[in-house]
Amino acid sequence: MSNIDKKEETLEAAAETGALDESTAEKLQEIMEKYDRESNVRKYTKKAKVAVRSLLIAFTTLCILMNLVFSWEERIRRPLFLGFAVVLVFLVFPAKKGSKRVNHIPLYDIVMILATLASYLYFVINFRAIINRGIMISQTEIVLGIIGILVAMEACRRAVGIPLLVVASAFILYAFASGDYSLRLIIYNLFYTTTGLIGTPISVCSTYVVLFVIFGAFLEKTGISDFFIQLANSIAGSSSGGPAKVAVISSALCGMVSGSSVGNTVTTGAVTIPLMKRTGYQPEFAGAVEAAASTGGQIMPPIMGAAAFLMAEMAGVPYGSIIARAILPAALYFSGIFIMVHLEAKRLGLRGIPREELPNFFALFKRSWYLLFPLVLLVWMILEGRTMSRSAMVATVACIAVSMVRKESRMTLTTFLDALEGGARSSLSVAVACGVAGLISGVITMTGLGQSIITEIVKLSGGHLIIAMFLTMITCIVLGMGVPTTANYIIMATTCAPILTRMGIPMLAAHMFVFYFGIVADITPPVALAAYAGSAIAGSRPMKTAINATRLAIAAFIVPYIFGLNPAMLFIFDEGTSTVSMVVQIIQIVITSFVGLFGVSCGISRYVYTKVPVWRAALLIVGGLLMIDPGTFTDLIGLVLVVGLLLLQRRDSQKMVHAG
After folding, report:
1. pLDDT digits (tens, 9 = 90+) for 283-305
2. Four-CA torsion 308, 312, 315, 320, nearest 10 degrees
3. Which stretches make up the TRAP C4-dicarboxylate transport system permease DctM subunit domain (predicted)?
4. Which residue among 149, 355, 371, 646 is least packed, with the fewest CB closer than 10 Å?
5. Exposed, middle or buried, 626 (CB in 10 Å: 0-12/13-18/19+)?
6. Does any domain span residue 615?
7. How many domains does the chain have?
């Protein structure tokens, strides 16, 4: 038996029992380390493990105190936060993958840590003198600034990966190549001001994002992920092709508290992918379903991969408003995957899991509904206008409280410390990614490069909005490959969103558009990390799995065009629009969006009731796409095409039944 066969057999056994034994957990960890930079960490034991764990807990504690107790000046708080994070990255992440030495920190990493402390602590201690001197920083400060930037970029390479580093390096080289800026000016702007390395991304990360990451770590300790998977099983497990539908629902629910497409794919996929294969789905399809659904978790309110907090800051829209407006697009995204999964199950004649093997929905919900309380409390507090920092902390305390309800989920001192440590570990990659993304933002601000990019794309589009949207989509997918959610959004918001606002799209719609297309880079070949993680669990061909995932996530490529052309999907209306008109527009866009999406899904699947001929499939896709345009005329044509062709398919299906 091959290694792949053994891995699949082990995973299937684990899925059937609902538990992961030690060997299975090791295999999943190997997959995580291969496709997720955050999982490739050093191994510590005994006193060294205690020391590193204590530093991680101290970092989490510092983040909480900085937000709820101390009122430090920004040029103290931001470099202190980023410097501490960079030091921890050098302790936690080895210089290259596959390092197996235990309790070993090489000399060059010790040098890196000392260099980090020297540059960032010097800034914190002398920030007032630096502010007073302005651009006239000393030679020593230039050297320390260079060191501070380089260590942050190396930390980013280790914790996040090369793609973001390449993009940031290209922007910095552009600043030097332009010849208009001296070394002193570039270092001053990128390291010592709040428009570069410690700019808006680090500000938002150190205040909002890190606290919600900590909240997610505590929420995980309550056992909510298992509850979500069991809940999804009880809802859809017995239907046709049930396990795939379970994957869609559970990934959407788990995505609310997860900030990683790869992490979500491995966590829920360890259970759902083997069950999908056992039901009859092909491995490439099973891995793709989980990857597409898990990637969608990043657009699922209320957390949205922590990017929602950045969006609130960068788009100038209240956080509560963002999560309310993101609900309908997210529903369309997951509906699209659900439809494709259902059609594939019908095409293959697949059945679900016997109902007697599944949990009862009402019994399960009655037993564990209280696990949802922290999430509900979080959303309620934010919508009520409470600060995000305080809302996150109160919700975190609620996690501790609900864990006490049952003995098996009760949080002990050990699990409490585990959650603090987990929150710190998850924050490290986000922190250094936000810092390096701040370098990109700083170069754009300093050089005016953003305006040049906007001008060129507007020129290429010839003033046509749909062409500008297409070019922006391509830019987002290319720049977003291999970049984590938060840094991904920062790059898109800085470089691409202004293109669309220049073309007349409302600010929030433009930011949501670039956010969606940055996220789908995780399943779009050639750098489709979530799809590759899914293929590793399924034992399938990686590229075919990525292509299937892209096909399944077709809604992600359609929905942004819908709300870009018709912002009513995001509940954005022209001034003076009456309430009745708003309601009518929302109803119209919901109906046309879902019908259009159904038509496109049927056309791509080439199955509805029975096999769809090529010409009908093409017309179904055309009809569905026509409903993207907000015009009533195009909606009617699309509706006639989709409904008419579906009726033809139904007639043919009935003829086949009577003939048989």
Report:
1. 898 898 888 888 887 788 777 76
2. 90
3. 147-572
4. 355
5. buried
6. yes
7. 1
